[in-house]
């Protein structure tokens, strides 16, 4: 099947992050044969990295062989809906750190695929306990 690449890995590579770029690139390379996709929100989160230049961003994704054309489905909406409920319940019990809505949407999207490639496992684990997560 296919893996969802989290925004952080792509930013690591695009910014040539001295601490994380090599490991992030190696993980994407290792999973490339299974297929790599982005959640639509990740496409949006990448805009500042490329100064809003869509052509540069899409060329970057093309070179990494990451598809950005996957449609959002009702299943992702329902998965994100359930994830948001778990997040809010945990937050109310003071068991969850503040998380942006983007992580909820990415996690919900990733449930349709093999799993999520990220170096931010903790951002997803409590909200999506059954999601397969691979870190560099």
Question: How does this model look, in words?
Answer:
This protein is an alpha/beta fold and 136 residues long. It is 51% helix and 9% strand. It has helices spanning 7-14, 21-31, 40-45, 54-64, 74-92, 101-110, 121-125, and strands spanning 3-5, 36-37, 66-67, 115-117, 133-134. Strands 3-2-1-4-5 form a 5-stranded parallel sheet, with helices on both faces. Helix 7 (121-125) links the parallel strand 4 and strand 5 (133-134). Helix 1 crosses helix 2 and helix 5 (74-92) crosses helix 6 (101-110). The protein starts with a strand and ends with a strand.
Characteristic key phrases:
five-stranded parallel beta sheet, 136 residues, alpha/beta, 9% strand
CA-based shape = globular
Low confidence ranges:
none
CA-CA gap between termini:
19 Å
State mean pLDDT (0 to 100 scale): 93
Strand-pairing-aware structural class = alpha/beta
What level of helicity do the residues show? 40-55%
Give me the number of helical elements: 7
Strands side by side in the biggest sheet: 3-2-1-4-5
Strand content: 5-15%
Gyration radius, to the nearest Å?
A: 14 Å
H/E series: EHHEHHEHHEHE
Number of strands: 5
Biggest pleated-sheet summary: 5 strands, parallel
Set down the secondary structure blueprint.
Blueprint: E1 3-5, H1 7-14, H2 21-31, E2 36-37, H3 40-45, H4 54-64, E3 66-67, H5 74-92, H6 101-110, E4 115-117, H7 121-125, E5 133-134
Parallel strand pairs: 1-2, 1-4, 2-3, 4-5
Helix pairs in contact: 1-2, 5-6
């Amino acid at each position: 099947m296919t893996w969802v690449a989290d925004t952080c890995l792509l930013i690591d590579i695009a910014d040539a992050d001295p601490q994380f770029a090599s490991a992030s690139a190696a993980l994407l390379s290792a999973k490339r044969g299974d297929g790599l996709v982005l959640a639509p929100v990740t496409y949006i989160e990448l805009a500042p990295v490329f100064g809003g230049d869509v052509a540069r961003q899409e060329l970057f994704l093309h070179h990494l062989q990451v598809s950005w054309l996957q449609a959002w489905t009702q299943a992702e909406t329902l998965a994100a809906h359930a994830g948001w409920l778990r997040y809010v319940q945990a937050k109310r019990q003071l068991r969850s750190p503040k998380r942006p809505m983007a992580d909820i949407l990415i996690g919900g999207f990733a449930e349709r695929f093999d799993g999520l490639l990220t170096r931010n496992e903790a951002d997803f684990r409590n909200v999506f306990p059954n999601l397969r997560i691979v870190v560099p």
